[in-house]
Amino acid sequence: MGFPVVGAAAGADRAWAWVGGLGLLVITAFLLLPNPTASAVMYDGIEFACVAAMVAGVRRNRPAAVAGWSLLIAGQAASVVADIMFDVYALVLHDDSWPGPWDVAYLISYLGTISGLCGLLLRRNRGRGYAGFVDSLLVGVAFALLSWVFLIRYIAAGETMGTLGHVVTLAYPCLDLVVLVLVLWLLTTDGKRRAAFLLLVAGMATALIADHLWAFVDMTSYDPALSVGRYVSASYLLSFLLLAMAITHPGMVAVGLPTPAPVTRPMSWQRLGLLAGAVLIAPALLAWQALTGNGTVRDALPIAVASAAMFLLGLTRMTMLVRRLHRQARVMQQQAERLRELAEQDPLTGLPNRRTWDSALPAALVRAGRDGTPVSVAIIDLDHFKAFNDRHGHQMGDRLLKEAAAVWADGLRDGDLLARYGGEEFVALLPDADETEATRVLDRLRRRTPMGCTFSAGLAIWDGRESGEALLHRADRALYRAKAAGRDRVERAQAAAPGPRSMDLAPGSPELQESLRHLG
């Protein structure tokens, strides 16, 4: 029973390929029909079949962006209604007036297409910013200038259509420019570009090309019934077929999904080249008209307006890029600070770690030597910590370390430093503290030790000459004496042995090594 289901699923996944193959065969047959009436009927039938395939594709694939796809299909359906109305008026009623009732349906089809594309774009581009939209607008302005110079200006100059005819006729290229901007924006969005995505873009691009070819045919007075008009009609059919293939493809569900954050496309050289070429269209047209018009620029005002618009869009894009760089810089700074904290802090207690201690101790000795102030160093070790771990478990041991670190750090003076040295050992740096003051601070910490525990500490007072390592070594020796004396006490280190000022000696020098041997 399982095999037929698998086969059916596989056949459903290949539905878009069947639609494409059969559609190409039917479009080829359309090109071979000699009779205009039969061609019109077949043309409308192919469009209707493509819209039916689109509806079936949405019902089968059940995309999340069903509203966007439905509006897009509604736009194509309105175009089919407009074509049928046009054919009925032209072939049955022999009414070739302009504009006609079919223009209302054509304009409604644009609204459906534009609304559908906006619905898909807003979902796909959710939370991703509008840099791609600005780039698309910039390219759209450049194409609008080209459209004005080579198409719209001639339509606007017509004197036989009347005001309504001018408005309707100019609406088509203007709405085409809106569709172009949306298609370009779709191309600039991040995310995967599977077959359904590419088929959708190809279908919309083919429709735009067909619109401009039809405008050229109409402007040059070609008879649409001739072969040129037939190929333009085939281009429209191809756009319907590509859209039907896109919507019946299983990958169409991903077109309207928000783009995952990690899938961010950097600006490609192709995109930069397209933007650069778009910006250069205005000066190129200016130079061309100046050269061919003996210094007269016929479209000076449209070129100036387009240049200003592209300049402002470029400035907007640069502002967005600078803000993005600032945001990235802040994120990188925060990450760097976080990494520095991780490198300098003990992950369990949140105290400075040994790396931080190794940097802080020499700096404190340098300051004390310069200012002539005392410095005390203590090594603190929790008493019987291993036995506590064995009796209560490692989780309680970690809790003891964290709570002890918190209460000890709270009991320090301003400017003091408590760091975790390793295991249950901590080190305290007490600047400007002589033996009496340092002992008082350590006794206060000892009384605050949580969970009924105690600690032993070895205290060493810097003699103004020894190195940090030697000072710490004396504190460590004092700690061992505190442990041996019964724990829960602070033991003062013995005075340092006389020797050269190791602060002035280079690491590894014979004099420093000799001093350390005496100190050991």
Mean pLDDT level: 87
- Tell me the helix content: 55-70%
**Secondary structure tally: strands:** 5
Strand order of the largest sheet: 2-3-1-4-5
User: Can you count the helices?
Assistant: 17
**Rough shape?**
elongated
**Intertermini distance:** 85 Å
Beta percentage is 5-15%
Order of helices and strands: HHHHHHHHHHHHEHHEEHEHEH
Low-confidence stretches are 1-10, 500-520
Biggest sheet record: 5 strands, mixed
Organism: Krasilnikovia cinnamomea
GO molecular function: diguanylate cyclase activity
Protein name: Diguanylate cyclase (GGDEF)-like protein
Region (Disordered): 491-520
Describe this structure in words.
The chain is mainly alpha-helical. Helix content is 69%, strand content 6%. The protein contains 17 helices and 5 strands. Strands 2-3-1-4-5 form a 5-stranded mixed sheet, with helices on both faces. The protein is elongated. Mean pLDDT is 87; it is low at 1-10 and 500-520.
